[in-house]
Amino acid sequence: xxxxxxxxxxxxxxxxxxxxxxxxxxxxxxxxxxxxxxxxxxxxxxxxxxxxxxxxxxxxxxxxxxxxxxxxxxxxxxxxxxxxxxxxxxxxxxxxxxxxxxxxxxxxxxxxxxxxxxxxxxxxxxxxxxxxxxxxxxxxxxxxxxxxxxxxxxxxxxxxxxxxxxxxxxxxxxxxxxxxxxxxxxxxxxxxxxxxxxxxxxxxxxxxxxxxxxxxxxxxxxxxxxxxxxxxxxxxxxxxxxxxxxxxxxxxxxxxxxxxxxxxxxxxxxxxxxxxxxxxxxxxxxxxxxxxxxxxxxxxxxxxxxxxxxxxxxxxxxxxxxxxxxxxxxxxxxxxxxxxxxxxxxxxxxxxx
Length: 353
Description:
single chain; alpha/beta; 2 domains; 9-stranded parallel β-sheet; 3-stranded antiparallel β-sheet; 16 helices; 12 strands; 12% strand
């Protein structure tokens, strides 16, 4: 085993975290990750409100008392539901991006729940800890989905040197060499999204997984702001190419259609939608555009990750997708990472100082 303080904090056997990828990190993937000794997060942000408690129960039933976590965003219409369920079911950890306030974090911590936000900048890590987070996942620019511009090799030592809580490294990790490198930087473990997405346990449709496997050049996995106004790393495809050649008016029309569809799916009330719009109006025109566009990502992710139409949706991916040539089970992935990490560490220990 390669055991760190993160294992004690989260209650897992190996310092390997499966991130809460939208429409990917459902009960089946979390169960497979947990049984393999890693720590999995349910994607509470994209599981239907009426199904989320059943998803928690499904993982609990399949894994016994093994710990797992839940991801949420405070701007979700059902954010309070997720918070209540995390406390009710005594989940081990929660992850989040746009953070809750000190009162909410205090409630979670009082319930014994580890608060582990994901950040992409040093100042955001420091702010999250000030708000009460007791662990931090840093995601370097190599990661998939919404990401910052600072590479992991710069961001990770920056944060490790500046904070006193366990740090988990994300962005560019997929094997045992990466785990050893992260530990050498001072992290307590690694978090992976793309590596777990590209497994036989992810539940992603075969047509979409095949498109991931076809990518052999990291240059085809690039960052764009056209989907929802925020930097997002994705695999080049037909939809992204069409979006880049569309007029601003057409992109706005697509965004409004997505927003209406997302509102219907989530059960968001008109009052809640208007409150979000009013808040963005107070922040300025750019915030309004981003608020309207924000629904694009989940709607387009569904086309790829649920409906199996990768040419018509978004395929979020870290640059490591270009290095993954086969689909393994979660158990094979985690066992392979741990075995390779142990081998590398033993090699180092055998080298004379």
